[in-house]
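C-alpha cells incoming
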C-alpha cells in the first residue's frame, strides 16, 4: 500500500465557502458591463457560457484551457476589437476582487492547510481551472490561503483539462511525480471532486457547502470543515521524510 503524502484541496465551496450559483450570477452581473462597448451583453454572455462549456469538455492535451476557451470564443464571435482580452484581463485583476462579498470566508481553511503542511504533506490547490491566475489569486486571498506553500495551483493558463474530467487529476499527479494512491482529494462536490477516486485517490467530501453533483460517487471520508481540521490534526499521520 502506497503512503499518503499529497493533499489536493478544492477552493470554491471548500476552502472558500460559497453558494456557487449565487456567486456565478454576481460574477456575470459585474463582468458584462465591462465589455458592453465591445460586444452586446446578450451576445457576450451567451458565448461566454458556450465557450466555457466547450473548455470543460475539451480533451485535447495540446490545448490549455485558456487556448480552448479563446479559440472557441473568437471563432464564434468573429472579429474582436484588439483590446477585448486586455479589458477582460483588467476586470479579473481589479473589480473581480470585489466579489468577496459573495463568499463566506472561514478561518478554518487556513488552519487546515497549515496543519497539513506542518505534518509534511505536499499540498495542491485543485480548484477547477475555469479562471485565469488573477481571479484565482483573488479567491485565495479571500480564503486567506494566498501564502500557503501550494506546490501547484490549477488555473486556465496552466491546465489542459477541467473537472470532472479524470484527466484533470491525472495531469496534477503527473506534474508532481506522484501516484494517485499517494493523494487525497478534498472537496465539496460529490461528483466533480469525488471522481478523483476513480484514479485511485482517497477522497474527503466536505459538507458545509455540499454540492450533490450529477451523481453521488463513493468517498473515503466525509465531514464539515471543522471535522476536516480534526481529521488532519488528529488522524492523519506525519509524513516521513
Amino acid at each position: 500500500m502506497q503512503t499518503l503524502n499529497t493533499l489536493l484541496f478544492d477552493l470554491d465551496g471548500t476552502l472558500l465557502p460559497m453558494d456557487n450559483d449565487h456567486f456565478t450570477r454576481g460574477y456575470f452581473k459585474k463582468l458584462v458591463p465591462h465589455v458592453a462597448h465591445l460586444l452586446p451583453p446578450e451576445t457576450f454572455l451567451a458565448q461566454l457560457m458556450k465557450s466555457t462549456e466547450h473548455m470543460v469538455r475539451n480533451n485535447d492535451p495540446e490545448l490549455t484551457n485558456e487556448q480552448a476557451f479563446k479559440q472557441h470564443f473568437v471563432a464564434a464571435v468573429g472579429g474582436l476589437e484588439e483590446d477585448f482580452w486586455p479589458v477582460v484581463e483588467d476586470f479579473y485583476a481589479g473589480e473581480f476582487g470585489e466579489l468577496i462579498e459573495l463568499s463566506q470566508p472561514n478561518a478554518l481553511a487556513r488552519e487546515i492547510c497549515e496543519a497539513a503542511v506542518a505534518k509534511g504533506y505536499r499540498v495542491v490547490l485543485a480548484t477547477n481551472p475555469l479562471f485565469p491566475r488573477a481571479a484565482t489569486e483573488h479567491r485565495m486571498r479571500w480564503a486567506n490561503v494566498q501564502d500557503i506553500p501550494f506546490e501547484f495551483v490549477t488555473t486556465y493558463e496552466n491546465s489542459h483539462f477541467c473537472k470532472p474530467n479524470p484527466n484533470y487529476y491525472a495531469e496534477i499527479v503527473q506534474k508532481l511525480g506522484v501516484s494517485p494512491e499517494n493523494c487525497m482529494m478534498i472537496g465539496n462536490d460529490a461528483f466533480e471532486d469525488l471522481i478523483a477516486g476513480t484514479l485511485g485517490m482517497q477522497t474527503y467530501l466536505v459538507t458545509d457547502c455540499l454540492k450533490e453533483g450529477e451523481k453521488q460517487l463513493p468517498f473515503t471520508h466525509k465531514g464539515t470543515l471543522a471535522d476536516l481540521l480534526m481529521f488532519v490534526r488528529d488522524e492523519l499521520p506525519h509524513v516521513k521524510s
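note: Strands lie at 6-9, 122-125, 152-153, 183-187, 202-206, 221-223.
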